[in-house]
Amino acid sequence: MTKLSILVVEDEDSIRAMLLLVLEQAGFIAHAASDAKEAQAILDQTHIDMILLDWMLPGISGAEWARRLRKESAYQDLPIILLTARGEEEDKVRGFDVGVDDYITKPFSPKELVARIRAVLRRSGKLLGGGQIVLGDMALDAEQHRLSIGERQLEVSPTEFRLMQFFMTHPDKVYTRTQLLDQVWGRSVYIEERTVDVHIRRLRKILSEYGREELLQTVRGFGYRFSLLQ
């Protein structure tokens, strides 16, 4: 069963502990950091599907770190929810200006938090109907670890499943081999770029059995793209 990972960046110990408990009870994998520097280290080594980010952090503020992340191609589409005690409308506008996906003002209920998280994940394509991603006649069920075309289930390895999960949550976008390694394998593991090519070939062979090998497209001189468009 594949669970989505959420990184909590909060400097107050009690709030951070509460958030971790709420997320774990909701079925997510929760990671925690107390400042932007620690959070960046986790992000560099671990696949993260969403960030819950406190506005006021020691050192680099949450808003500033979000602005920096949005300048990196690997994190431009990473969902970010900003947590803050600020309630003024102008501060909310400033929060969205830095590129966050949602804004929750403290205090908030655990039920509201989880609902907002799931809403952002659905909008980003990472979560649909209890962990399902559906594109055309293709469906990926993260909870049951199933990939299917119509009624036919595809037999793929765990790595190939993660690769397809990333592609299906980021359709029609081109990614370099390095970006795919960072997002699917993680930056903490040294793997040669040609490993990506090997897994792409395997996936195409599997998809070809269903006449769908064209879904994984090579963009010459850059990398790969998953697209239902021809």
Task: Please characterize this protein's 3D structure.
By secondary structure, the protein is α/β, with parallel strands linked by helices. It is 40% helix and 21% strand. Helix 6 crosses helix 7 and helix 6 packs across helix 8. The protein starts with a strand and ends with a strand. The model has no long low-confidence stretch (mean pLDDT 84).
Relevant terms:
230 residues; alpha/beta; Arc Repressor Mutant, subunit A; 2 domains; 5-stranded parallel beta sheet; 4-stranded antiparallel beta sheet
For CATH, the homologous superfamily of the largest domain is named as: Response regulator
Query: What is the mean predicted local confidence, pLDDT?
Result: 84
User: What is the count of β-strands?
Assistant: 12
Helix content: 25-40%
CATH topology group of the largest domain: Rossmann fold
Quaternary state, please? single chain
- Provide the low-confidence segments as ranges: none
Sheet-strand content, in percent, reads 15-25%
Under the CATH scheme, the architecture of the largest domain is 3-Layer(aba) Sandwich
Overall CATH class of the largest domain: Alpha Beta
Q: Tell me the major beta sheet.
A: 5 strands, parallel
